[in-house]
């Protein structure tokens, strides 16, 4: 044995400042464009590989330029072509049987195969997509069964590390951890009843061991293993989760040839999982100190804590003084401390560069991904060299925070007074029986009344007109004419189909939240603030920075015009307070419930104006109600209280004879059924086609007395459901809900559909309704 082998080199320390991950889509959405052109066949796999490599190398260069140490594992390597959970699945070999033929001889899948698993092909459904923790990002749900053959099946993770190393960067690979992977998976089609993916933990663990050895062999000094599942209350018993955490990390820590392990737990506090990780033998633990508190009283000696003090999930400039205090508190618990973002930065846009239209003052309050990296670097410098070394940055931050606090827009006396004047009576309408009688007398709708959820296809013509208007190529009048023509066409179509309650089609709305954000005060919108929603899809959330007011009516003109074209009732269409918050970046300087109530008061005024214009049916959409549900059970009741209250504050000013609808489009209702009842809407439409009305018995057993429209047609695909199919679904629905309480509608809005399938599906929906009514 040589001497080198008996005296190991000291393990490299964790870098003083880092981020948990960086946006992957590219500053100019380069990856989106490269992917979509590959999918259309315009470019080849090699072109996509080349674009992705270029993007990765540019990102490395930029992060080093911003100050992350390029030689010390400070730069995370977290690229993904589509989704990081899908990456874990294909790396572990977890490809569902229906896609088995996509696997090459070595078990890997190429970019075309990878895309097919993500997007489906013909009758082969893609992996299901669902929300990633309490964010707006959607991941693909792996399917695991006893038949899944786990083995290292992709070299991409290691290849990307090597690619960076050859370019001169010692990066830190970021991978989804085994617990998060398995607990987020669902049983495969082949799995027997009652099978749970976590039963495969031993096998998966072995593959993670192989992967860590491969990273070590390639020269990685640190690997980041993301385990956000540890901060969430999930279906599994907590003791089981903790025992599995002890097992996984105890076992990975004892591997002979491995990099040092950094287990990151973003999105909330680890609570009882923290001591388990600390005792497991991993070298570093990442804590989200924005969502979770400093774990006071916990002995953290002997471990590195990567203190997530810069909010990775929102766009506000960090209070650097407070961040330094938190880091010091962690240090006082005995830990070696590094500073970091609280989550990956892929939840925020790339850079403020190019957003100068927001104005210097608002800009000074904000930090997007690049600016957050700079904050981390400042904090790390302050910790290494003392606060004096960054005195200017600290002073600039203090000035910006003070300006935000003092800005009249964040504290408007009239808004505060209006909220203070709200009384409990403002949250309630008279008993449903009273409203029902008034509404029946007014509308006389038949049993199984038919309607749609609001939007009709957003045609190329509509988009072109809006783009031309935004560029000043057509004037307001021409734009207005174009939208009115579209509204008229939608109204005529619905009259021809003989729907009972019509909609105007939402042609004028670019997006159901941004439309309102642009018309309300207290919001601003970015020009390039894109964040990845799923795959190549991005959204551009608005910034809700101030007290919310409604300078003028927002929807009345369009809705009243639509009503003027028909004798049938025209349904007004608003987006609810919770959804407006959920799909924007929201101010963090007051409780969310206060902000929601400000939005609610603006909507309440809008409803009053709609009523005055003769609109008798008004839908307030809350598709995001479920999405903001806190990860920890102990926080859920308070959330449901303020969210339901804000909806009631928005709608309870409606007259008895005004029929209030709401729309929620997801099917996991179980845990929030009380809340849905609590909204007290006269009519609630929900998504139900894909699950074949499965939620209705629970709604019946709950004793739900108002009206409900379970979707009879899955609008997520162009497939046209047959009349028979819809008839069957309606018959199923009637088994649980009396016809008098039942509405007939699609699962959600039609904006992503084309006219051909929309018209055919609506015809079938009407024919099925006639058949069931008869
Ligand atoms: C995501 S829910 C969408 C509701 C909206 N009214 C629409 O029809 O598009
Ligand atoms: Zn919907």
TrEMBL record:
Its cofactor is Zn(2+). L-methionine binds at residues 453-455, 506, 621. Pathway: Amino-acid biosynthesis; L-methionine biosynthesis via de novo pathway; L-methionine from L-homocysteine (MetE route): step 1/1. Zn(2+) binds at residues 663, 665, 687, 748. Its EC number is 2.1.1.14. Residues 18-332 form the Cobalamin-independent methionine synthase MetE N-terminal domain. The keyword Transport does not apply. 5-methyltetrahydropteroyltri-L-glutamate binds at residues 32, 136, 537-538, 583. Keywords: Amino-acid biosynthesis, Metal-binding, Methionine biosynthesis, Methyltransferase, Repeat, Transferase, Zinc. Transmembrane segments: none annotated. Binds 2 Zn(2+) ions per subunit. Coiled coil: none annotated. One of its GO terms (biological process) is methylation. Residues 448-770 form the Cobalamin-independent methionine synthase MetE C-terminal/archaeal domain. SUPFAM superfamilies: UROD/MetE-like. InterPro entries: Cbl-indep_Met_Synth_N, Cobalamin-indep_Met_synthase, Met_Synth_C/arc, UROD/MetE-like_sf. GO terms for molecular function: 5-methyltetrahydropteroyltriglutamate-homocysteine S-methyltransferase activity; zinc ion binding. L-homocysteine binds at residues 453-455, 621. The active site is at 716 (proton donor). Catalyzes the transfer of a methyl group from 5-methyltetrahydrofolate to homocysteine resulting in methionine formation. Belongs to the vitamin-B12 independent methionine synthase family. This is 5-methyltetrahydropteroyltriglutamate--homocysteine S-methyltransferase. It comes from Demequina lignilytica.
């Amino acid at each position: 044995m040589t001497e080198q082998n008996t005296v190991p080199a000291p393990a490299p320390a964790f870098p003083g400042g880092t981020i948990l991950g960086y946006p992957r889509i590219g500053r100019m959405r380069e990856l989106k464009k490269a992917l979509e052109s590959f999918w259309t066949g315009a470019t080849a796999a090699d072109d996509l590989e080349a674009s992705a490599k270029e993007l990765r190398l540019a990102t490395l260069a930029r992060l080093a330029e911003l100050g992350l140490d390029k030689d010390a594992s400070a730069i995370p390597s977290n690229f993904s072509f589509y989704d990081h959970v899908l990456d874990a699945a294909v790396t572990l070999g977890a490809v569902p049987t229906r896609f088995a033929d996509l696997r090459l001889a070595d078990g890997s899948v190429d970019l075309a195969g990878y895309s097919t698993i993500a997007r489906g092909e013909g009758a082969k459904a893609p992996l299901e997509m669902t929300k990633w923790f309490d964010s707006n990002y959607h991941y693909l749900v792996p399917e695991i069964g006893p038949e899944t053959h786990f083995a290292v099946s992709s070299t991409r993770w290691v290849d990307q590390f090597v690619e960076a190393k050859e370019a001169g960067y010692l990066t830190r690979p970021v991978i989804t951890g085994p617990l998060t992977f398995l607990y987020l998976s669902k049983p495969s089609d082949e799995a027997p009843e009652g099978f749970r993916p976590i039963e495969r933990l031993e096998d998966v663990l072995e593959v993670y061991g192989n992967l860590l050895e491969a990273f070590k062999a390639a020269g990685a000094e640190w690997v980041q293993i993301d385990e956000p599942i540890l901060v969430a209350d999930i279906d599994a018993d907590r003791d089981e989760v903790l025992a599995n955490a002890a097992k996984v990390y105890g076992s990975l820590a004892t591997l002979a040839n491995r990099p040092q392990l950094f287990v990151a737990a973003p999105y909330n506090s680890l609570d009882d999982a923290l001591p388990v990780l600390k005792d497991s033998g991993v070298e570093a633990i990442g804590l989200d100190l924005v969502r979770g508190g400093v774990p006071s009283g916990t002995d953290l000696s002997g471990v590195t804590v990567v203190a997530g003090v810069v909010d990775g999930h929102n766009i506000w400039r960090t209070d650097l003084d407070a961040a330094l205090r938190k880091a010091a508190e962690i240090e006082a618990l005995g830990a070696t401390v590094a500073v970091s973002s609280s989550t990956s930065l892929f939840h925020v846009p790339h850079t403020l560069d190019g957003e100068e239209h927001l104005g210097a003052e608002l800009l000074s309050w904000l930090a997007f991904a690049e600016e957050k990296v700079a904050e981390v670097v400042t904090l790390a410098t302050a910790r290494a060299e003392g606060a004096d070394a960054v005195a200017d940055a600290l002073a600039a931050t203090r000035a910006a925070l003070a300006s935000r606090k003092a800005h009249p827009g964040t504290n408007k006396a009239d808004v505060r007074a209006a909220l203070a004047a709200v009384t409990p009576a403002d949250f309630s309408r008279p008993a449903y029986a009273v409203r029902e009688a008034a509404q029946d007398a007014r509308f006389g709708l038949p049993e199984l009344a038919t309607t749609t959820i609001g939007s009709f296809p957003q045609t190329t013509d509509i988009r072109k007109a809006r783009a031309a208007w935004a560029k000043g190529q057509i004037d307001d009048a021409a734009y207005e004419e174009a939208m009115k023509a579209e509204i008229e066409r939608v109204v005529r179509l619905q009259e021809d189909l003989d729907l009972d309650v019509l909609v105007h089609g939402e042609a004028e709305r670019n997006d159901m939240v941004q439309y309102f954000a642009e018309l309300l005060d207290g919001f601003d919108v970015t020009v390039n603030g894109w964040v990845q929603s799923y795959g190549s899809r991005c959204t551009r959330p608005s910034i809700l920075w101030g007290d919310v007011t409604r300078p003028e009516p927002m929807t009345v003109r369009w809705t009243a015009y639509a009503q003027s074209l028909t004798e049938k009732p025209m349904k007004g269409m608003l987006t609810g307070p919770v959804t407006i918050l959920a799909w924007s970046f929201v101010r963090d300087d007051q409780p969310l419930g206060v902000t929601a109530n400000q939005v609610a008061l603006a909507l309440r005024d809008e409803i009053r104006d709609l009523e005055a214009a003769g609109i008798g049916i008004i839908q307030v959409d809350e598709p995001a109600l479920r999405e903001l549900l806190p990860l920890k059970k102990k926080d859920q009741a308070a959330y449901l209280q303020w969210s339901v209250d804000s909806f009631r504050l928005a709608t309870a000013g409606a007259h008895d004879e005004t029929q209030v609808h709401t729309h929620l489009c997801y099917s996991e209702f179980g845990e929030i059924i009380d809340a849905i009842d609590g909204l007290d809407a006269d009519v609630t439409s929900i998504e139900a086609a894909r699950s074949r009305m499965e939620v209705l018995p629970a709604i019946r057993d709950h004793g739900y007395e108002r009206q409900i429209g379970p979707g009879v047609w899955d609008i997520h695909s162009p497939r046209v459901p047959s009349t028979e199919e819809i008839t069957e679904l309606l018959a199923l629905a009637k088994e649980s809900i009396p016809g008098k309480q039942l509405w007939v509608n699609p699962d959600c809005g039609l904006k992503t559909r084309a006219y051909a399938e929309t018209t055919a599906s609506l015809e079938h929906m009407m024919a099925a309704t006639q058949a069931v009514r008869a």
